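Q: Joint fold for the lines below.
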Amino acid sequence: MQELATKPMQEPAKSVLDELPGELLMWVLIISELLVFGAGLLAFLGVRLTDPAGFAEAQEHLNRTSAAFNTIVLVTSGFLAARALHLREQSKRRSARWHLAGASSLGLVFLAIKVFEYWEKAQLSITSESHPFFTFYYLLTGFHAAHVIAGVVILVLVAWKDDPQNIEVGASFWHMVDLVWVLLFPVIYLLA
Amino acid sequence: MGFVVPGHLPIGIIMTQLLTPLTRAWIALLILSIGSTIVASLADYGLGTTATGAVILLLAWFKARTILSRYLGLWKAPSWNHGFNWVLAAFCLILLGLYLVPALM
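A: Joint structure:
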């Protein structure tokens, strides 16, 4: 009994999952989304094997400049979201909220440019049926845009309910959207 | 109040000290994004598809690594960071392989 009393308390063994920053479920979501978009990109390049010339010709109709600008918009938005978390952890609530507002506004800029891009295609009578390239283009960029919409809503919500844990989860979702885009952009817009 | 910047330090060292790792990550992402677009436009001027494809996907891998490490904070979990880096590298290599198959046929 005395031996038990004098024995130092052992800390429970740390699982490798405990090393992950933030919420475990958010990482499950991030990995799931990467798998879904990753499979989409592999399928895109797989179907391209059947008609590389047609894919190259279809890609010429994309607006590479606006997509590159959108990449800059999204990585800057991610930077603001990451800074918001740092600021909130330093109890700078007001500044953190402004950063979240900036991040979500840039999300809206991304969406506006995306709508312009789709409008440009509509003017050329390009639909998802025009070519398999555009089927994947609309599917992948449209699904990503849906995540951007969800991300903007989440950023507004965590700016309102601004405890650090909420901001961390919201910012992680936003970084996942960012991460998917930096893989989507080169494959769809740049690899001719 | 403000920063006291010693006059004898080179600008590179001063910038490194003033910029946080997060800000440096953001600047790196901007440079990598612009760089990949420039490399893609070089393909229009006759640079080989193998070289441009490899560089574009290498830059994409760097961007993904930066987001995971600095934005998502995986630098605090080195084993996870390495794991993600390896899986993403393998994924980018598969993408490059699929991209280059038509050029090899």
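Q: Anything notable?
A: The helical segments of chain B are 11-18, 21-44, 49-71, 78-104. Chain B has one domain: 11-104.
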